[in-house]
Write a structure and sequence with these properties.
It is built from four helices and eight strands, in the order H-E-E-H-E-E-E-H-E-E-H-E. By secondary structure, it is α+β, with helices and mostly antiparallel strands. The protein has one domain: Double Stranded RNA Binding Domain (2-Layer Sandwich), CATH 3.30.160. Helix 1 packs across helix 3. It starts with a helix and ends in a 13-residue tail after the last strand.
């Protein structure tokens, strides 16, 4: 059985959560040395960091999801309107699949792919219990 059907199911789950959630774009992180808050990274910006032009799957106010395929493998990039929405989404995501997580974004894919994306995206690897993995990533 391939991983792709599972990934597609996660994108569908992301869309369902977006339809049930509320919130705004209020949780910005201040840019270093700046008085103005910086906008969160978009699906396109995150994807570009790993050499992908995403194929958009979900375009909602609270959630955007893009599918990527690179030399590293296949994965989905999700961005959220707030940290609270990201946390709610992660609470509903299947616990058997790892996630790469950053400020208001998640990336879903096979563990081998996420390990390769961890450095370029500067994300935290969350395994079965949605907590940060302490497993070192081989370089």
């Amino acid at each position: 059985m391939t991983t792709f059907p599972r990934l597609a199911a996660f994108a569908l789950l992301a869309g369902l959560v977006a339809g049930c959630s509320s919130g705004g774009w209020g949780d910005y992180v201040a840019a270093e040395g700046s008085q103005k808050p910086a906008a969160p990274l978009t699906v396109e910006q995150l994807s570009a960091k790993v050499g992908c032009t995403p194929k958009m799957q979900v375009e909602a106010d609270d959630l955007r999801t893009g599918y990527c395929k690179t030399e590293a493998g296949q994965f989905f990039v999700n961005t959220f309107a707030s940290e609270k929405l990201k946390d709610e989404w992660m609470d509903r995501a299947p616990e058997y699949n790892p996630h790469l997580v950053g400020p208001r974004w998640t990336v879903l894919g096979p563990l081998e792919v996420l390990e390769q994306l961890k450095g370029p995206l500067n994300g935290d690897l969350h395994l079965t219990d949605h907590r940060v993995s302490q497993t070192p990533v081989p370089r």
